[in-house]
């Protein structure tokens, strides 16, 4: 009996121990099982949930586009003044920066060689006149032939013409201004040798008219169709920040330069107060009308990669890839000439996981807040070193 009682107690203890372990196992497993089930349900919900994309609308391009291009500035009229007779500078009366009138004497030249030639020509003329008068005064018929008289008269006329030519050259001893303007160069001193050869570097003065300036601009081919005579433009120089000068397109070359594919365009700028100076670096800002309907989109809406340009748009809550034809690049914006009409919701920074027809949720793009700290340095206004800039007018 004792053995059976001991055996029963043993198995009872074993059952109690197994029951305790079973209870502990159930207590530990069930919470973990519930947690895993909840995580699996959450993961399944996330997997089945439509992804969220950031979108921005495509906008119809404005009627006007601006483009800012560098320009070479020249006077309305300018010319070099040369000597027209050989000699030495006797005096000069106009210096740089001085305003002169048309016909005003700028310098005087002594011409000793020319003076000697004039004296010789006078003597030759006197001799020819005497010879002609002597023959013409012969009264005896048949003493001289008519041919001898004609030769003497011709020689007299030749000597008259030679003297007049030399006297005309003598008048060039006074060097005068060809038109009213300002002297911008003076290359003479008293005693300087001058020549009528007009060789490079032999100019005595340079005269310019600065009441109106000419700005020459090389307009790229894609903007050339919008350039028209009479249209207004802003003339910008770094010395006058925030003060554009109004100019007008007066002419263009009518053909593109085959080397640069640009159209040479002349813009005239009034300068009545002389604030602007010829030769200055400047920029011309054109306001060009839109020649064809187009759409402006953010640059980061383009789908990266591939040979053809396209965007991902959201239609009826699903992704649709739309091929487009791009035109001008404005940096953070791009002009689209074909493929969009405006108003489409475009996905910004489209990921590779977005597939055609994928259901998505949308979130409107909001510009980021300005970062804390000092503001970034502003670019130098009308900077000569700045690249060519074009942008749609808002």
UniProtKB/TrEMBL annotation:
Residues 368-379 have a biased composition (Pro residues). InterPro entries: Beta-barrel_RND_2, BSH_CzcB-like, RND_pump_MFP. Residues 362-394 are annotated as: Disordered. Residues 79-197 form the CzcB-like barrel-sandwich hybrid domain. It comes from the Bacteria. One of its GO terms (cellular component) is efflux pump complex. Residues 217-286 form the CusB-like beta-barrel domain. Keywords: Membrane, Transmembrane, Transmembrane helix. The chain crosses the membrane at residues 12-30. One of its GO terms (molecular function) is efflux transmembrane transporter activity. SUPFAM superfamilies: HlyD-like secretion proteins. Belongs to the membrane fusion protein (MFP) (TC 8.A.1) family. This is Efflux RND transporter periplasmic adaptor subunit.
């Amino acid at each position: 009996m004792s053995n059976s009682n001991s055996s029963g107690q043993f198995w009872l203890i074993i059952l109690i121990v197994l029951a305790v372990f079973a209870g502990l196992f159930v207590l530990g497993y069930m919470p973990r099982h519930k947690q895993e089930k909840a995580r699996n349900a959450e993961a399944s919900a996330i997997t089945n949930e439509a992804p969220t994309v950031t979108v921005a609308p495509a906008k119809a391009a404005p009627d006007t586009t601006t483009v800012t291009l560098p320009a070479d500035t020249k006077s309305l009229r300018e010319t070099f003044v040369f000597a027209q007779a050989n000699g030495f500078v006797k005096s000069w009366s106009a210096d740089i920066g001085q305003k002169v009138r048309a016909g005003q004497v700028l310098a005087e030249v002594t011409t000793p060689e020319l003076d000697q030639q004039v004296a010789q020509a006078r003597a030759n003329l006197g001799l020819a006149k005497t010879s002609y008068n002597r023959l013409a005064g012969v009264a005896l018929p048949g003493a001289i032939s008519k041919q001898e008289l004609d030769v003497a008269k011709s020689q007299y006329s030749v000597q008259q013409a030679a003297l007049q030519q030399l006297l005309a050259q003598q008048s060039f001893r006074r060097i005068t201004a060809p038109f009213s303007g300002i002297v911008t160069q003076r290359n003479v001193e008293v005693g300087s040798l001058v020549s009528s050869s007009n060789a490079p570097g032999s100019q005595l003065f340079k005269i310019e008219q600065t009441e109106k300036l000419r700005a020459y601009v090389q307009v790229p081919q894609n903007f050339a169709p919008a350039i028209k005579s009479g249209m207004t433009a802003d003339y910008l120089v770094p010395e006058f920040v925030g003060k554009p000068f109004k100019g007008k397109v007066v002419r263009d070359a009518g053909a593109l330069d085959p080397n640069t594919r640009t159209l040479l365009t002349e813009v005239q700028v009034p300068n009545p107060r002389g604030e602007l100076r010829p030769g200055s670096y400047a920029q011309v800002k054109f306001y060009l009308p839109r020649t064809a309907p187009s759409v402006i989109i953010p640059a980061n809406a383009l789908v990266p990669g591939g040979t053809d340009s396209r965007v991902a748009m959201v239609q009826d809550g699903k992704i649709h890839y739309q091929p487009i034809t791009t035109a001008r690049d404005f940096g953070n914006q791009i002009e689209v000439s074909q493929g969009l009409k405006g108003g489409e919701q475009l996905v910004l920074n489209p990921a590779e996981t977005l597939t055609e027809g994928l259901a998505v949720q949308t979130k409107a793009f909001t510009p980021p807040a300005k970062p804390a700290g000092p503001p970034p340095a502003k670019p130098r206004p009308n900077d000569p070193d700045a690249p060519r800039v074009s942008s749609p007018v808002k």
